[in-house]
Amino acid sequence: MKTKMDFPNINKRKPEGLKENGKPFRVLIVDDSMFVTKQIGQILTSEGFDVAGTASNGEAGLEKYKELYPKVDLVTMDITMPVMDGVTSLEKIMEFDKNANIIMISALGKQDLVKKSLLLGAKNYIVKPLDRKKVLERVMMTLK
Amino acid sequence: MRVEYINPFVEAAFNILTEVLKTEVKRGELYLKSSSMPVLGVTAIVGLAGDVEGRVLFDMAETTALTVASAMNGEKIEKNDELCKATITELANMITAQAVTKLHEIGFQFDLTPPAIFTGKNMEITDVAIEALIVPIETTFGKIEINVAIREKK
Amino acid sequence: MSSVDNELENTIQEQEQQEQQKARIDFKMVTFSLANRDYGIDIMKVKEISKARNFTIVPNTPPYVEGVHNLRGEIISIINLRKMFHLTFNEKLKEEDVDILILRLEDNIIGMIVDSVDNVVGIDSSTIQPRHPLFADINMKYINGVVEVNKKLYVILDVERVFGMEEESLEDEVIAPKTAPPAAAIKKKQAISGAELEFDFIKETLSTFKQFHISDLNRDWAYARLQEWRKIRKTQNKGVQLENIEDADDFLEEFYSTYCNMLWGDDYKKHVDGLLKDSGKSALNIWSPNCGKGYDAYSIACILRLKFPKQRIKVWASDQELLNISAAPNLLLPLQRVPKYFIEAKFVQETEAGYQFVKSIKDIILFEYHDILHSTPLPELDIILARDVLSFYSQALQEKLLDQFKEKIADKGILIIGTHERIKKSGFTELKSGNIIAYRNEKD
Lengths: 144, 154, 444
Fold this sequence. Notes:
The complex is a heterotrimer of chains A (144), B (154) and C (444). Chain A is an alpha/beta fold and 144 residues long. Helices cover 39% and strands 17% of the residues of chain A. Chain A has 5 helices and 5 strands. The longest helix of chain A has 13 residues, at 34-46. Chain A is globular and about 55 Å long. With 154 residues, chain B is an alpha+beta fold. Chain B has helices spanning 3-21, 62-73, 82-105, and strands at residues 25-27, 31-33, 37-38, 42-50, 52-60, 110-119, 124-125, 132-139, 142-152. Chain B is globular. The relative contact order of chain B is 0.31. By secondary structure, chain C is an alpha/beta fold. In chain C, the strands form 4 sheets. A 7-stranded mixed sheet of chain C has the order 15-12-11-16-17-19-18. In chain C, strands 8-1-2-10-9 form a 5-stranded mixed sheet, with no helix packed on it. Chain C starts with a helix and ends with a strand. Chain A binds chain B through residues 32-36, 38-39, 42, 80, 82, 106-111, 128-129, and chain B through 16, 19-20, 72-74, 82-83, 86-87, 89-90, 93-94, 96-98, 100-101, 104-105, 112, 114.
């Protein structure tokens, strides 16, 4: 009689993008650059996150957030965008949902705008250029 | 161009390109240019405002742009499509932003305006009465010329 | 001017009588070596000598075009002479600096890679022998002739032919008869006096080696210096002519202004003070083009601050040498190089590495990396400091720059130039104050 071999699970690490219940965290990416959107999307998707939506300016971002609510766990928000910039969008989303998890993405570090965002309720910020390690670190910091 | 403005741009270009392209990056000798400049094929422009007025151009051949975009996206990009343009624009933005951050740290208030990208053959950029600093950068993907023109506001 | 000429002429004639050789130098060439052979090129055709590497390749050009080179903003073609003459060539061009002769041909500027640049040799053009079949391995039409100097044989290259600037004629393919004369241009020189020729050669060598151009601005000094130089060289048993860059440096040593590359001493300050009159303006604007490390700019800023404590002072200082101008905003000085008035007025402070200017002085000056041949937007200026600046531009550019200066200075504003420079243009009144060379602008 052949017994089914029980191989131990060597890779014990669970993808970061999954919640305790096994369902993925849902993320909204707000950025006017197709490249950055793709980059963040790829990093998060590879770690099990679900990119629930994208928007290319602050106003579309606000609309999308309201649409996805309450099934949205995290927002990545670019600071410089046309129509409505990231800081204004952040402000309006925080008005709508005071528990929103918003991470600012900026090419300008230590700038007044980043500081202002944090004061307005942004949970964290990431300075470009983005890499996998940086992004995942900050995202996990925010979600815990 | 004011002496203090030079290093932030040179360093930002070197740092970002090295980090993002993950390849050897070498800086050529800086020089000044005044006349209209023939463009290599793909040029991204970021505007500067604040204490000064001016702009930064990132100029490269189309083949270089494709190779750079491929490296940044982790996949082969064969046409100068929307993704390629967005990638090069983002590169220009990151370099200018880091330079602006460094300038901020030494007391100069600069702002960026949203970038634009131009492609074409035999283009020329003409500035009226503004001198430009040229920072030639050699990478294994090709040459990238950074062209900075800044004027003090009176 | 002609009496100076006569004097020179007499001196030269005297010397010639004393010398055993009767040869006269009426042709100067820059010599170089290529594949173990020595060549010479008419110095009038040589713009400058340079070293460079890593030329930018240009596709679809002949194989001997090594590429292009950026010479201070101008893109010039670089020709590999070895390749052009079908000799073996060095593959390692990318890794080492090579010697280049920058040539001025018609309207073109071309760089030519040679094995090594030697020195400037003066000859009597009548000693040039016509082309010899011995040199048949190089295309005969490129050779003007050959000449022997100090047991060395030089092939005189017709660079215009080499780079295709002249029309080719079938006759040139044939070996010329022995009586063929060298280029007609050389003959013309024999009609000019010996003194003028000698001076002309010094002029050419200074411009080639040091980019120093003799004109109305500095001719008086140059003539006087030549007299002095002749005496010095005689005692050293050397010829008058400038053979290399060291000679050119020595000749020019006496040109540079008082307190060149230094902060101005108390004596100079006193004279500058004497020049400055309170114009009643609330702000003073000063320009210091090609300021180097900024010594003149710092000096004028401090002197003005002392004399006019309440006025707003702004100094624009620029240079096109990146290393120099980059050092200017944070210029460090050893204690012994700082004249007393700076220290007494507390314009400098002591730091670990030496003395530095205090913020209130640094804030007065805006240092820029800038080429003054490009347009310089500035408000109306009260003072322009251009000591030893104009002399390092060609005569045409000197005039253009002087016009620019005149336009930019306010009426009755001051232009300060080098100790050995003089302006002979109308619209400027000479001002006398000690050893300062200054002119007041008179706008009509």
